[in-house]
Specification:
Bound molecules: glycine
Number of strands: 24
Largest sheet: 6 strands, antiparallel
CATH topology of the largest domain: D-amino Acid Aminotransferase, Chain A, domain 1
Number of domains: 3
Strand content: 25-35%
CATH superfamily of the largest domain: ATP-grasp fold, B domain
Length: 440
């Protein structure tokens, strides 16, 4: 079987690893030359992943039997729709189904229309005066969100990015006027406080199979300080829960995802592929922060290495609608993933700097290496402006996995930055006590 993966980040490197454990032949379509994927693939094409016609002609030319799309941008461009029109199976959502991520107003109104729990008070505005009234009604305790994709950099939050109602209104006006996120509109949501967690699930249009939960760390600096990033690292626990979660929290999140899938189906937007709920565990239960139409990055690197079931078989079950008949299992291990990023990342990345990676030493130290946005030239690895690579430690306990991860990171050097506190006992205890305080 010939499987094509669209995307060239660390998440897609993890997807390619999972595929290469089957006897499928791997093909890749990516905008950057990911060294890990390049090595694994039978063939690859370097090109803009949103170029629908190019992905389609590459897939037809290589007689591809199955496609997995990693990032959201090619989904929004309609890559899955074009492939399906030519009868090529795709284990990722169509443009209409992916609107659950690519249009935040659609996501919130779908939840409201179908009375799905976990929604928050929110409204979309194209008038800044009306947005101001709503922001004032919520005492300025709001999240200001562009409706569409902004590469994770468009959302601004009271207390973090602005401190007054005036600043919130000014940013709302900027989103409307400059059409940030692709629409002359802004979404204002009440700010929710708690501990964030990710729940990813396989989905075949009707049924979901939820994976172990993961916590990502968006802030650049230790102690959750500094600017928001694409994610500096993440951890998971062998129980499938996070240390601050109860089983009922996991069930609540899984139920929300299941109801979203059912609502999408009723709306004629059947969702097949991996779905990813970004949730906030609050003192008042589980709330939806956003829903994404893909694996999380870095969260894919926590769960995919634990998958005991053949990933290609799962993808086919998602395509064929037979997930409920499939037995899926994950290794009961804990994981810690830390990203290596260029110096200056999150503010002004130092691109074009060499990173030295001793792959064999990382392997000997027991960790996994996933390349992200780097360039390989003459056998040397160079940074770009985005995250460079990720290292994952796997063990029974989170703190053991963290030690393995750190041991491996000693074999990566250059002008790099790493958030070393991810997965440490101290940070885990802070999460637990924060949640205990919120639950009263
Ligand atoms: N974990 C952040 C993202 O994948 O969007």
């Amino acid at each position: 079987m010939r499987v094509l993966v669209v995307g060239g980040g660390a998440r897609e490197h993890a997807i390619c690893n999972a595929i290469s454990e089957s006897d499928a032949e791997l093909y890749s379509f990516m905008k950057n030359a990911n060294p890990g994927i390049k090595r694994m693939a039978k063939d690859y094409m370097l090109h803009d992943e949103r170029d629908v016609e190019k992905v389609l002609s590459y897939a037809l030319d290589k007689k591809i039997d199955l496609v997995v799309i990693g990032p959201e941008a090619p989904e929004e461009a309609g890559v899955a729709d074009a492939l399906q029109k030519h009868s090529i199976p795709v284990a990722s959502p169509t443009k209409a189904a992916a609107e659950i991520e690519t249009n935040k107003e659609f996501m919130r109104s779908l939840m409201e229309k179908h009375s799905i729990p976990g929604n928050v008070r929110c409204r979309a505005f194209s008038s800044v005066d009306m947005a101001q009234e709503f922001i004032e009604m919520l005492d300025g305790e709001v999240a200001v969100k562009p409706l569409g994709l902004t590469g994770g950099k468009g959302v601004k939050l009271a207390g973090d990015h602005f401190h007054t109602i005036r600043e919130a209104v000014a940013y709302a006006g900027e989103v409307i006027e400059r059409e940030i996120g692709g629409a002359h509109k802004v979404l204002i949501e009440e700010k929710i406080v708690g501990e964030e967690f990710t729940l990813q699930a396989f989905c075949d249009g009707s049924t979901i199979y939820p994976m172990p939960s993961v916590q990502d760390h968006k802030r650049l600096l230790p102690g959750d300080r500094g600017p928001n990033t694409g994610g500096m690292g993440s951890y998971s626990h062998r129980s499938g829960l996070l240390p601050f979660m109860q089983p009922s929290d996991y069930e609540e999140a899984a139920t929300i995802l299941q109801k979203i899938i059912e609502a999408l189906k009723r709306e004629g937007r059947e969702y097949r592929g991996t779905i990813y709920g970004q949730f906030m565990l609050t003192g008042d239960g589980v709330k939806v922060v956003e829903i994404n139409a893909r694996f999380g990055d870095p969260e894919a690197m926590n769960v995919l290495p634990l998958l005991k079931t053949n990933f290609v078989d799962i993808c086919m079950a998602m395509v064929e609608g037979s997930l409920s008949r499939k037995r899926i299992a994950f290794d009961k291990k804990s994981t810690v993933c830390k990203y290596v990023v260029p110096q200056g990342y999150g503010v002004k990345s130092e691109a074009g700097k060499e990173i030295r990676v001793d792959e064999e030493a990382i392997q000997r130290a027991g960790g996994l290496l996933f390349y992200a946005s780097v360039n390989e030239e003459n056998g040397k690895i160079y940074t770009t402006t985005s995250r460079s690579l990720a290292v994952v430690g796997i063990a029974d306990e989170i703190t053991e996995a963290e030690i393995i991860c750190e041991r491996c990171l000693q074999h990566v050097s250059g002008d790099i930055f790493i958030r070393h506190d991810i997965g440490t006992q101290e940070l885990l205890e802070r999460r637990i006590s924060h949640m205990a305080m919120l639950r009263g």
